[in-house]
Specification:
Elements lengths: L1 E5 L3 E8 L12 E7 L1 H11 L4 E7 L1 H13 L3 E6 L5 E8 L2 E6 L7 H14 L5 E5 L10 H11 L3 E5 L2 H9 L6 E2 L3 H8 L7 H8 L9 E5 L5 E5 L2 E6 L11 H14 L4 H16 L12 H7 L1 E4 L1
Parallel strand pairs: 1-4, 1-8, 2-6, 4-5, 8-9, 9-10, 10-11
Antiparallel strand pairs: 2-3, 6-7, 11-12, 12-13, 13-14
Helix pairs in contact: 1-8, 4-5, 8-9, 9-10
Amino acid sequence: MILTVTLNPSVDIAYQFESFETDTLNRPTLTRKTAGGKGLNVTRVLRSLGEDVKASGFLGGTNGEFILNELRKANVRTAFESIPDDTRNCIAILHEGRQTEILEKGPLISHRDSVLFKRNFGTLLNGCEAAVFSGSLPQGIDDTFYAELIEIAHASGITTVLDCSNAPLRKALKAEIKPDVIKPNIDELRNLLKREVSKEVSSLKAALLDETFASVPWVIVSLGKDGCFAKHHNTFYLVTIPSIRVVNPVGSGDSTVAGIASALVHNFEDEALLKHANTLGMLNAMEAETGCVNLKNYDSLYKQIIVRKV
């Protein structure tokens, strides 16, 4: 089983426009409302793959009830900590190939609720092979929280995948117990190292050799339409993906993370892991709904991905 941890979930509302203008009235051609937050996108894709998955985190208010109902419809097991404040909304405005996001901060998590979640976390791991930690931390949660959860998971022999940025990622990488996988995009990599990193192999390789990533088995850097660059222990890979018709890129990184977690629990070899993960990321981008993949196109895309040791 795979446990997903979404500490700052949201109700994701996507508005699709043929064109969008400021300071005037705009009417969307399509509106979609889904249970969101990076970890819940991961959860949906894992469920689409037929994986046994359990979703956890904090939920509250009517938005929290909406998310629980959506997950139950998808036959996802849930183990959320209930909080008094309402779970946030996140809005995506999609028009003419562009994407503008409005992300609410989310509720303030009390010290009591954060301690309670951490105390119960070990129980949530029972029967799990991997735990995926995704997204930002809500207000009231210390930047070390992911690092603390990863340490608990490691003590139980659980493989950990971390997909976050800024201070929570830095704290996790400075902790004694490291995540097994991190998946920054290239902008997050630049921010983490506080230096320019190009998409050239030499620049990417130098970046991943930085001591920041010492003792992290897998570092997988998303390069968007250019694929990804990865380091597994001392081996580097450049992954090239085919061109696709992008409908909605929101959640593609999360779908990639779902593929990573799935591949890890099934002991995929490196090349298969990278192909599997990138295929799912592309499949999500080809769909209008966030965190959604159409597996009938899986084999065709998988075969077009090129993985090279560099």
